[in-house]
Amino acid sequence: MALFGNKKISNEPVDMFCYQCSQTANGTGCNVSGVCGKKPTIARLQDNLLFAVKGISAYNYHLNELGVEDEEINKFLTQGLYATLTNVNFDLESLVGYALEAGKINLKVMELLKKAHIANYGEPSPEAVQVGSQEGSGILVTGHDLKALEELLKQTEGTGVNVYTHSEMLPAHGYPELKKYDHLVGQLGGPWFDQRKIFDKYNVAVLATSNCILTPSESYKNRLFTMGPTKVPGSQAINGYEFSDLIAKAKELGSLENEEKTTLTTGFGAGVVLSLADKIKELVEGEKIRRFFLVGGCDSPIQGTGYFREFVEKLPNDTVVLTLGCGKYRFNDLDLGDIEGVPRLIDLGQCNDAIVAVDIAVALCDLFGVELNDLPLTIVCSWMEQKAAAILWSLLYLGKKDIILGPILPAWANDNILNYLVSTFNLTPIGNPEEDIKRILS
Ligand code: SF4
Ligand code: SF4
């Protein structure tokens, strides 16, 4: 039984599962320990490494699509995968080392992806995005792939087809070279998991550009298009960036109706936030900003995720919230106002824009002459899928302590791994929002 924060956690009885080889117990899976000598913690650290490597691969895929290859990243992906092969690595320290190395490589891939986004689409700047439909036929783009969006915007220019974003495409509205297109008209829906409702509601053609796609319902599968490695039954796969079938489908579907709109603000790049550095310093030193919170990450519709909205709602007015990923949709409709011109809610972008948060944190450390863990910054992370494992290890690689994590524990972490994460990094589970805020601010 491990202690995670003040919670007692036991992952019994499924502490281990491995079916990597022909010796597997009963021909179905080793679930106590392996004939090969593999112990539960080793099996779980291998799974953890696989998750992190897959997360890095997703970012690397988008980077490669923008024409950037990096030898160090590619080499690590090969080595990291090889370390999880049957009977290669039974060494606990080595596998923890690989996890931390995955964190380091993930920082590199996020940094290169950010640079490639800026090189192609310009430095993001804040944009109030209209949420709701307008008259005219439409294409709704979901996922993370900004290059796909740009190519689609080029090909739909002058066709009368409007383009909308969904989920993690929202931050696209902040990039000058994307927002310059007048027919990028707004956003429909929120996080990835509202897609069945939203894709059903709006009679538009849908383009899924990356992960976090669900198998479609009958009501919209004939107007769903996928690209790259993304594929779901019933949808039409697009070849490269050739969108003529998608555009034809959008036209065939006819016009949407004008809806009453709400707005969401996105597009705070590191440059925008750091242009406020002197003001931020003055406000922190004048005790007008007490603490920064990075609240965000991946999100899912499971029990416990209401924590994040309540947490942000209950933060006192002298705090600033940075956010990113789908986690933002828990609270990005809130008007938190500003502190003498510094917004209290700052949307940094997609999950890979965690690197922007890191860049801001490093710059604030320089500004205040302190180490990362002495900065008045608390990270409150929501997680859902495997990219989140890569990002968590990036933060741990940087030595960030006292991260609060929820809504549930990563299932790959058994008692031994939890003990390590708690004793080394003081990783803490989400608790009660009010009590957590009180503890952090005390
Ligand atoms: S690699 Fe080891 S633990 Fe995995 S199935 Fe084979 S014997 Fe079992
Ligand atoms: S932030 Fe995470 S959960 Fe949301 S769409 Fe991106 S990868 Fe999926």
List the helices and strands and how they pair.
Layout: E1 2-4, E2 7-9, H1 40-65, H2 71-82, H3 92-121, E3 127-131, E4 138-142, H4 146-156, E5 162-165, H5 176-179, E6 184-187, H6 195-201, E7 205-208, E8 224-226, E9 236-237, H7 244-253, E10 262-266, H8 270-274, H9 277-285, E11 291-297, H10 306-314, E12 319-323, E13 338-339, E14 342-343, E15 345-347, H11 354-368, E16 377-382, H12 386-397, E17 404-406, H13 415-425, E18 428-429, H14 433-441
Parallel strand pairs: 4-5, 4-7, 5-6, 7-8, 8-9, 11-12, 11-16, 12-15, 16-17, 17-18
Antiparallel strand pairs: 1-2, 3-10, 13-14
Helix pairs in contact: 1-2, 1-3, 1-12, 2-3, 3-12, 10-14
The site of one iron/sulfur cluster (SF4) has 13 residues, from loops.
GO molecular function: 4 iron, 4 sulfur cluster binding; hydroxylamine reductase activity; metal ion binding; peroxidase activity
GO cellular component, one term: cytoplasm
Protein name: Hydroxylamine reductase
